[in-house]
Structure to design on (720 residues):
């Protein structure tokens, strides 16, 4: 891979780290989109000797086939058994991609927190005990920055949320980041990479945002229009792969260039926006989906009002990763890939336009 | 034969005509074939030319039928105006525009916000602009202006002044109070008009991107001052704007605005009500709140906006931005310039409404 050559020569102080390709990579969350496809990509890389995929549930046949030569271990990361897997496999790189943002079918928020935070604590404890571990890559989220009216235009890695997230996935993610930093503090020989991924979108991946925009009528918050920065699912995988191979320590914002407004996104997808007052929105949303466990929490409502954009300079310059899709392209790819039928037909819009013009031409004389 | 085929093109808008239907279907098919991803890239579509071509054909045929020589081949005024509006509406409906990372929607700003503000600029306040040549043609500059008039009309008028009078029609990006962005509709509109919150990181980002940035260092103290204190510059904050300009090596352009003080002459400030509504001040003007909605209409004072000579900041070294002596000195210099220019403009003004 050319990427290693680039990073190898540039930073003489880190030669040790960057020249040593990961030999044995352990990836958590193997049955989820990012984990599964990351394993598929890593398994195709001949420079990696061994890839271990870990998840608490068994992967589908299709995913298992995609993983290729990777070895699947069915283990719950909340169980100390994970330490044995790391030790016996002589793992030197751990990619923690298991943190889930949406609640499982049973159990609700408490179960999600238990899964995410407890799993991370156990996994990091296991990493700390295993002397072979050299690199830890944590998939985090841009949600740690929160969303508010008083945000700076772009969040840099050093800026923190004005109001630290008090609940939900954002809180869990910042806690997990804290535990990861604790691990890096106690084991200075471990290179810790934290990737804060922007909201992902794409034809294959199922995210809160993609589900939200899939309905014919999309409820929005009246008087607010969020600035959205997206990340194509393939770029998310690419960034994770790059971080795994490069082993740069630090925190990196990962997001596509450019932004899209919420209203613009709805129009591009040909959906109809339904502006609602803030309090009515979560009710309307749960009514539409007729489920209880997908209720919008305050963080998500804030995100829909104000959005969030991150400064990705460090990702481009230090991590050396350039996303291939811009935000608008990623969104268009999602619309095309999902085959969303526009409610407002662009052809109809165009024919109305030409009709108006010709009518004006006729009567305007 | 050519005339024959053109004649079939004409009944574009009669729904019953089979020819028209065929032609529409063909056009639609062609459009769909050329752009399989209608949603992804509706730009670059030659719609304007196509429409113009159809319109020209109609014109040709009409003039030929009347036996008159083809006098004008271009679409008439109404049609071209409707075409402009229709194109705007289509682009809005299909999301076919780009927004920068600040949320600045140039398409919307040029077509909706600026025309609305231009009514105030030309007919209501009859703004006279001078010194526009002091603004750079390209690259960043920090415009520092006085702030007055209860509602920030002065910022909006300055943005119109820069856009309309500047030779390259640059967009002025305002650094506004954070309260604006917390208000439901206003915050959204301000973002789309290209304004952002007055904080160090945003100011620096705008200047680093080479934008014309305007700042009102007086803030609420200037905006909410009594009518009896008009044209007396208030305290200029901590000079954060100077260090932002020094960091970006952007020139500072002092800007003096006369006329903004008289739009809502504030005779009292009800602190209790202000606290109740969470506002920085609650103004009492001769018409507000006694006259109800009429009190919201700004008085038609005559405005003058003068951009002073730019203060160069490239000669300062990198540590100057953090040096309080340098920043205070520059702040004072800018403040003095604006105050002196204000007095000059006021001395030349005979009547606040007639100029």
């Amino acid at each position: 891979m050319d990427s290693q050559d680039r990073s190898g020569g540039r930073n003489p102080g880190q030669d040790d780290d960057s020249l040593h390709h990961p030999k044995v990579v352990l990836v958590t969350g193997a049955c989820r989109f990012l984990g599964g496809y990351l394993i598929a990509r890593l398994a195709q890389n001949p420079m990696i000797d061994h890839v271990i995929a870990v998840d608490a549930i068994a992967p589908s046949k299709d995913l298992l086939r995609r993983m290729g030569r990777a070895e699947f271990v069915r283990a719950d990361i909340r169980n100390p058994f994970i330490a044995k897997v790391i030790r016996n496999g002589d793992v030197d790189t751990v990619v923690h991609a298991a943190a889930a943002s949406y609640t499982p079918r049973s159990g609700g928020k408490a179960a999600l927190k238990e899964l995410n935070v407890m799993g991370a604590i156990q996994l990091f404890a296991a990493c700390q005990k295993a002397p072979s571990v050299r690199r830890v890559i944590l998939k985090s989220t841009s949600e740690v920055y929160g969303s508010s009216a008083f945000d700076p235009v772009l969040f840099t890695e050093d800026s923190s949320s004005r109001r630290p997230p008090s609940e939900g996935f954002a809180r869990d993610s910042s806690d997990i980041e804290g535990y990861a930093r604790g691990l890096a503090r106690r084991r200075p020989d471990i290179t810790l990479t934290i990737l804060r991924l922007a909201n992902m979108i794409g034809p294959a991946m199922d995210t809160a945002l993609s589900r939200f925009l899939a309905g014919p009528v999309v409820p929005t918050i009246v008087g607010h229009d969020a600035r959205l920065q997206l990340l194509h699912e393939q770029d998310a995988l690419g960034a994770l792969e790059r971080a795994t191979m490069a082993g740069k320590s630090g925190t990196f914002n990962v997001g596509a260039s450019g932004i899209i407004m919420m209203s613009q996104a709805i129009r591009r997808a040909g959906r109809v926006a339904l502006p609602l007052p803030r309090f009515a929105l979560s009710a309307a949303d749960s009514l539409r989906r007729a489920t209880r466990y997908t209720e919008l929490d305050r963080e998500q409502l804030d995100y829909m009002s104000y959005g969030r954009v991150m400064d990705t300079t460090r990702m481009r310059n230090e991590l050396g990763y350039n996303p291939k899709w811009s935000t608008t392209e990623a969104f268009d790819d999602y619309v095309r890939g999902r085959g969303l039928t526009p409610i407002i037909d662009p052809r109809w819009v165009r024919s109305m336009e030409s009709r108006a013009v010709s009518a004006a031409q006729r009567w305007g004389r | 034969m050519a005339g024959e085929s053109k004649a079939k093109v004409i009944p574009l808008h009669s729904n019953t005509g089979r020819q028209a239907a065929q032609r529409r279907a063909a056009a639609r098919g062609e459009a769909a074939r050329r752009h399989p991803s209608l949603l992804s890239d509706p730009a670059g579509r030659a719609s304007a030319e196509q429409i113009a071509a159809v319109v020209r054909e109609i014109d040709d045929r009409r003039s030929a039928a009347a036996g008159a020589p083809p006098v004008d081949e271009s679409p008439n005024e109404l049609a071209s105006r409707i075409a402009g509006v229709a194109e705007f509406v289509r682009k809005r409906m299909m999301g076919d525009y780009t927004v920068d990372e600040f949320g600045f929607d140039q398409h919307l700003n040029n077509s909706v916000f600026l025309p609305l503000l231009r009514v105030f600029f030309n007919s209501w306040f009859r703004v006279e602009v001078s010194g526009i040549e002091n603004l750079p043609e390209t690259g960043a500059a920090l415009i520092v202006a006085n702030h007055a008039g209860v509602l920030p009309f002065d910022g909006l008028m300055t943005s119109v002044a820069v856009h309309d009078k500047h030779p390259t029609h640059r967009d002025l990006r305002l650094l506004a109070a954070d309260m604006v962005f917390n208000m439901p509709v206003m915050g959204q509109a301000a973002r789309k008009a290209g304004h952002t919150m007055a904080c160090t990181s945003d100011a620096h980002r705008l200047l680093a991107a080479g934008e014309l940035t305007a700042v009102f260092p007086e803030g609420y103290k200037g905006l909410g001052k009594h009518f009896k204190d008009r044209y007396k510059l208030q305290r200029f904050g901590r000079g954060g704007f100077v260090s932002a300009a020094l960091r970006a090596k952007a020139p500072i352009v002092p800007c003096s605005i006369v006329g903004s003080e008289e739009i809502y002459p504030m005779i009292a400030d009800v602190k209790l009500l202000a606290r109740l509504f969470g506002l920085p001040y609650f103004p009492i003007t001769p018409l507000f709140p006694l006259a109800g909605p009429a009190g919201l209409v700004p008085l038609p004072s005559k405005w003058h906006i003068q951009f002073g000579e730019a203060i160069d900041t490239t000669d300062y070294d990198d540590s100057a931005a953090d040096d309080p002596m340098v920043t205070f000195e520059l702040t004072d210099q800018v403040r003095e310039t604006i105050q002196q220019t204000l007095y000059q403009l006021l001395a030349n003004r005979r009547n606040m409404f007639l100029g």
Chain A has one domain: 2-340. Chain A is about 45% helix and 15% strand. The first strand of chain A starts at residue 24 and ends at 28. Chain A has a mean pLDDT of 86.
